[in-house]
Write a structure and sequence with these properties.
Elements: H1 21-28, E1 32-36, E2 39-42, H2 44-63, E3 67-68, E4 74-76, H3 77-83, H4 85-88, E5 94-97, E6 103-106, H5 111-121, E7 130-139, E8 154-164, H6 167-187, E9 192-196, E10 206-213, E11 219-224, H7 242-251, E12 257-259, H8 265-269, E13 276-291, E14 301-303, E15 309-311, E16 313-319, H9 321-331, E17 333-334, E18 337-338, E19 349-353, H10 359-374, E20 379-382, H11 388-398, E21 402-406, H12 408-412, E22 415-420, E23 426-430, H13 431-438
The protein binds 5'-O-(N-(L-cysteinyl)-sulfamoyl)adenosine (5CA).
The site of 5'-O-(N-(L-cysteinyl)-sulfamoyl)adenosine (5CA) has 20 residues, from strand 8, strand 13, strand 16 and helix 9.
Length: 439
């Protein structure tokens, strides 16, 4: 992609409304634009990152056996009246009237709707286990939206919903999602720690939040240092083996970890002081087991092996893709800007032409762009008329993992400079070598 043909509204100054670094950098890097309170447009650079985050989530949900669907954002209030949550949900729910004056709402979550889908088709335990998920926009009229997309009113959520015959099956479904989350956040370059959590308006009695440690996090968390070095399940994890998955969950829930709502001071004293980590954290995922909370009032039941009817035992599993974009920046930035982990970077390489219009520089840039692109790399070619200093600042700000710097002196010697954004390491090498190294 040529920068001269892209849409990247970089801000030179720090926007005063941004209180935390991710909000500041997302605005300055031209990734988002605020459209209203807690409501944002995703501009081209931001949308590329959001899509990569969603793709990793999708791959790991599919690996764990969940099936992707897509449900509407606007829901009928009648469904929520069946579960009893229409009144309970409170002021966070955006309530709407349609032209026939029917009560509608902009979905804050989809437990009722997915239960309606389930009860319409699934009648036998032989059709279980079933886990349906979607990646869909939600609206929650947060009393205090802030920190940009970290706590917005309209936000993207992956929400998965499992259905099983009994608690044993539902616990196995919960465990599969738990392990899937460990893999998901690791692939984004994040260290997420599962913590026993409160269940709130979703309900149930078994819940874990997945928290990444960051000093700007809204949650206060306490955990054993052991979590920082546990090895994350590999791509060969057998999600069909309940025992194997259960062992992984046991390993990841034995050392102490709790959010402040669930913190147990007595248990905490059993953790050696040298092993105690008390920090701020960002909740990037939250999983719940809630049994018959929705299937019973909505009469979603299956015939069991005993020939009797059983209300499905359910769970729901949320991840915040739009929040994750901000969380990744909180976890990976420096004073010059964002440092994208390769797996979610909007482009792999920033190609910087220090002297646009110079025949040799233009030629070498075109050659490198063609070679790297045909090698499958996403290249953002800064062919703008900015001065070199401004180009370097932009490249550091938007945080692409690699920069290739093409200058007149270098090309005269048949060389270019490559720079790794994370380490800051620079290396001058022959053009052919650069193609090989980054291609
Ligand atoms: N206001 C918000 N802005 C951005 N992301 C949010 C917001 N509220 C929640 N999220 C993200 O959405 C995830 C899931 O939200 S939740 O309320 O915990 N869970 C649910 O709604 C369940 N229905 C899971 S299917 C959270 O872990 C968080 O990462």
């Amino acid at each position: 992609m040529r920068l001269s043909r892209y849409f990247l509204p970089i801000l030179k100054e720090n926007p005063r409304e941004a209180e935390i670094v991710s909000h500041r950098l997302m605005l300055r890097a031209g990734m988002i634009r605020q459209q209203g309170q807690g409501s944002f447009s995703w501009l081209p650079l931001g949308k590329r990152v959001l899509d990569k985050v969603c793709q990793i989530i999708r791959e790991e949900q599919n690996r764990a056996g969940a099936l992707e669907i897509l449900m509407p954002t606007v829901q009928s209030a009648d469904l929520w009246r069946e579960s009893g949550r229409y009144n309970d949900y409170g002021k966070e729910m955006l309530r709407i009237k349609d032209r026939q004056d029917r009560d509608m709402l902009y979905g804050p979550t989809n437990e009722e709707m997915v239960t309606e889908i389930f009860r319409a088709y699934v009648k036998s335990y032989k059709d279980l286990p079933l886990n349906l998920y979607h990646i869909q926009w939600k609206f929650r009229d947060e009393v205090r939206p802030r920190f940009g997309v970290m706590r917005s009113r309209e936000f993207l959520m992956k929400d998965a919903y499992s259905f099983d015959l009994d608690f044993e099956g539902a616990r196995a479904a919960y465990n599969r999602m738990f392990v899937s989350y460990l893999r998901t956040f690791t692939r984004m370059g994040l260290q997420a720690i599962p913590m026993r959590a409160d269940t709130g308006p979703i309900g149930g009695d078994l819940s874990h939040e997945f928290i990444i440690l960051a000093e700007t996090g809204e949650s206060q968390v306490f955990c054993d240092r052991a979590y920082l070095t546990l090895d994350v399940p590999g791509a060969n994890t057998n999600f069909s083996n309940d025992a194997e998955i259960g062992d992984i969950v046991k390993k990841w829930t034995t050392p102490y970890a709790a959010t402040d709502e669930m913190h147990d001071e007595a248990a905490w004293t059993n953790v050696p002081p040298s092993e105690q980590v008390s920090a701020r954290g960002i909740e990037v995922g939250h999983i719940f087991h809630f049994g018959e909370k929705y299937s019973k009032p909505m009469n979603a039941k299956v015939t069991g092996p005993d020939g009797k009817d059983h209300f499905a035992s359910g769970g729901s599993y949320g991840i915040g893709p739009s929040r994750l974009v901000a969380a990744i920046i909180e976890a990976s930035h420096d004073e010059n800007g964002i440092i994208w982990p390769e797996a979610v970077a909007p482009f792999d390489i920033g190609l910087i032409n220090m002297k646009v219009g110079d025949g040799e520089c233009d030629r070498v840039c075109a050659e490198l762009y063609a070679a790297l692109t045909s090698a499958g790399r996403d290249v953002l070619y800064d062919d703008s008329d900015q001065r070199p200093g401004g180009k370097f600042a932009t490249a550091d700000l938007i945080g692409l993992p690699w920069q290739v710097i093409v200058g007149p002196r270098g090309v005269a010697a048949g060389e270019v400079e490559i720079k790794n954004r994370k380490s800051g390491e620079r290396e001058t090498l022959p053009i052919a070598e650069a193609k090989k190294r980054l291609g």
